[in-house]
Each structure stands twice: as C-alpha cells, then as structure tokens.
Specification:
- The chain is α+β, with helices and mostly antiparallel strands.
- The chain folds into three domains: 104 residues, no CATH class; 139 residues, Beta-Lactamase (2-Layer Sandwich), CATH 3.30.450.40; 126 residues, Winged helix-like DNA-binding domain superfamily/Winged helix DNA-binding domain (Arc Repressor Mutant, subunit A).
- Helix content is 53%, strand content 10%.
- The chain starts with 29 loop residues before the first helix and ends with a helix.
- 33% of the residues are buried.
C-alpha cells in the first residue's frame, strides 16, 4: 500500500519550532478520518499501541494503515481464537479503507499530471540547448514547488548548475556557488547516489539532521524536505532536479516526487533533442567548411588551366530539419502543419514509433501521416519523400529571394 520512497511521518521534535511540517498531500475527509480513528481505536489494544491519533493527509494515513496491517499480520498466528477473529477484522478494514483512500488520490494525480504538462510548455519554444538548460529550474517550479535546483553529474560528482528560488536570487546563486565550490562524490555518502544507481526519484525528509545530504548546501538552503529525480541523457544519468515547498512550510509528498520524476524524464528528452539539433547544425557547418576548402584547393591546383573548364561543385547540403521549434521558411502548401512536423522528423531519421513519441500521437496516426506525405510528394519511399521535400524547401527559399518559382510549379 505504501508508495516506495515515501517516508513515514517523522516523530515530532522537542521544541515547537522543530515540529515536522505537514506533508503536501491531499487531506483526509471527515468521514474517512472517523473510520480510520475507529479502526485505530479497535486495533490499539490488540497491538499494544496508541490508536487514538491519525494523520491528516492521505499519504500519511495510508502509510499508517499499512503499518497497522503489517503489525496485525505479524501477531495473527500466535493469537488466541477470539483475538485472531478481531485481528482478521482489523486486517480486512485496513484493506477496505486503503482502497477508499486510493480512490481519493485519483483527482490529485490528474491535477499533478496537468501541472507537468503546463511546466513542459515552457520548454516547447526553446531553440537551443542553452535555453533548455536555463529554463529547467523555472519549469520544474511550475509543478507547484517553491524552489528547484538543476545539477549535473561531472566526473562522478554532484555539481549544481542553476537554481530557482523566486525573487530570492541572491540565495539561489549562493547555493549554486557553495555546491560548485564543494562538489561531493556520488560514492554512497549522499542520498543522490540512489538517483544514479536505481534511476528513480526519492523524497528526503529531516534534511538538516540527515548525514547523507550535502551539509553545506542544506545549511544555505535551510531545506527541511525535498524531492529529487534523475535526468537521463542518452541513456545515462547526466544530472538531477531537486525541488521543495520551503516557502509554504510543507514537506514533500509522494505525489510531488512522482510529478518531478515525470517532468525530469520529459526534460531529459528535451535536452536530447536540443543536443542532437546542435550536433546536426555543427556537422552541417563542418561539411560546408570542408566543401569550401576543397573548392579552394582544387582551384589552387590550376584545374581550369588543364582545360577541364570551370570547377563545378555539387549543390550545397540541404539544411538539416531542426528537432526544436524555430521560425521556418515558407513551406509547401500541399502539406498540413502536422505533416510538415512529420516529414522533418523523417529527415532526422525517426521511425514511425519515434515520430509518435515525439508528437504524442499513436503509431497508427504517424503511419497515416507518412502515407499522406508520400502521396502528396509523389514519392515511392520515405527517403525519396525527404529528398523531394528538402528540394521543395530550397526552391521556396530561392523564390523568396527572387529566384525562379520552381516550388510553385512542382506543387501545381
């Protein structure tokens, strides 16, 4: 019943100022709370525990029900027949109440997913790898967090890169400086080692007393509870996203952790697309540079003097279709906006499954778009369709610059 990685409620500290923060989770309704209290009052004498107080939020209540269920199961075999009957009743009620509470989490999960989608919209028009990196912490904060931190894994060390703390930019910059000045190795001495080894998100409570956190960063941030998720890039953990509810004095919940994990997964894919686009642009520039150097070298050898006529070269390479949105030249009118997106992904080497994942559509829809593109461009296969489309784009660019309207003629 308990979600992995979600700690049980911490015991209150001695002083009022040190009491644990309430968890940022949906509250338990009055009726459900009464039923839980009644169950705990029944189970308390049977298990020898205090059963008069139940938590206020759904996640902590479910964790308490699980603990009660396990404690009852542990003493079931040794119990007398009369006591065993009452314990079996407690076990059944634990399961029933947990199922009821699980239903209440459905709306909260839907709202959390909507926040993830809204956060990703901030990355939708990023045109470079630097923009995706810079927007990461701000987008993560849109999940409902007060603060967020983007870090990198550099030579096996945890190294902060950028931080968002709302208007408190000075503390955010100070936190990054402290982390960069005092990098910590991911050798098991930090909670973040789990992010690399297991590639799953975590929740860390009692940050100020936990021996497995970055002590200096914990002191500067004054964090009490945070969630952290790995950012994967090309199959490896390249960094982390951390987030908390410090300003609202709330402990991070399992829902928070899961939302950050979903966002971190999508964020890693956005980084991959931006990185691939950057590499393709660099390759294009390198090939064009080599082309110019080769042409200059041929002319320097005196080829024209040998009677071979003017040195003619192949047409310049067609620009590689970018993987990140940007302003495009006028496109062939016969293709819809979605078909333009699909054909550019074809040019980037994507399969139907890859296109479906990128555009968040079904594989069948992606296949249908490809068929329409082949028909409209009069191509026999995907490679020919890409070649014809790139030629039409070049013609469109020349037309815009005053050249012959070849694209118009080709499109009828």
């Amino acid at each position: 019943m308990r979600t992995p990685g979600v700690p049980r409620p911490a015991a209150p500290a001695a002083g009022p100022s040190e009491r644990p923060w309430p968890r940022n989770a949906p509250p338990v309704g009055p009726r459900a709370r009464r039923e839980v209290d009644e169950l705990l009052a029944t189970a308390g004498p049977l298990l020898g525990v205090d059963g008069t107080i139940s938590p206020l939020d759904l996640e902590s209540t479910r964790a308490l029900l699980e603990r009660t269920w396990r404690d009852a199961l542990a003493v079931l075999d040794a119990a007398t027949p009369a006591r065993r009957s009452r314990l079996i009743d407690v076990l059944g009620r634990c399961r029933e109440l947990d199922r009821d509470l699980e239903h209440h989490l459905t709306d909260a999960r839907a709202a959390s997913l909507a926040r993830v989608r809204a956060a990703l919209e901030l990355l939708s028009d990023a045109e470079s790898l630097a923009q995706v990196l810079d927007r990461g912490p701000v987008a993560a904060a849109r999940l409902g967090f007060d603060r967020s931190l983007l870090s990198a894994v550099e030579r096996g060390c945890f190294v902060p890169r950028s931080c968002f703390m709302g208007e408190d930019r000075e503390r955010a910059e100070h936190l990054v400086r402290v982390g960069r000045d005092e990098p910590r190795r991911l050798d098991g001495s930090l909670r973040e080692t789990t992010l690399v080894r297991r590639r799953e998100a975590i929740v860390v409570d009692d940050v100020q007393t936990d021996p497995l956190v970055h002590r200096r960063m914990a002191e500067v941030s004054e964090a009490r509870s945070y969630a952290a998720a790995p950012v994967l890039l090309e199959g490896r953990v390249a960094g982390f996203l951390h987030a908390d509810h410090h300003a609202r004095r709330r402990a991070v919940s399992g829902l928070d952790r899961d939302a950050l994990w979903m966002f971190a997964d999508a964020y890693g894919r956005a980084l991959e697309r931006a990185l691939q686009a950057t590499r393709l642009r660099e390759l294009e520039r390198a090939v064009e540079g080599a082309h110019r150097e080769t042409l200059a070298a041929l002319r320097a050898t005196g080829v024209e003097a040998l009677g071979l006529g003017e040195v003619r070269t192949t047409r310049p390479l067609a620009p590689v279709a970018p993987l990140l949105p940007r302003e495009e030249p006028a496109a062939p009118a016969a293709l819809t906006r979605r078909e333009l997106e699909v054909v550019r992904l074809l040019a980037a080497g994507e399969t139907n499954a890859g296109i479906a994942a990128r555009l968040v559509i079904s594989a069948g829809t992606a296949k249908t778009h490809v068929k329409h593109i082949l028909r409209k461009l009069g191509a026999a296969n995907r490679a020919e369709a890409v070649s014809r489309f790139l030629q039409l784009e070049r013609d469109a660019e020349r037309r815009a610059a005053g050249g012959e309207p070849a694209a118009r003629r080709a499109l009828g």
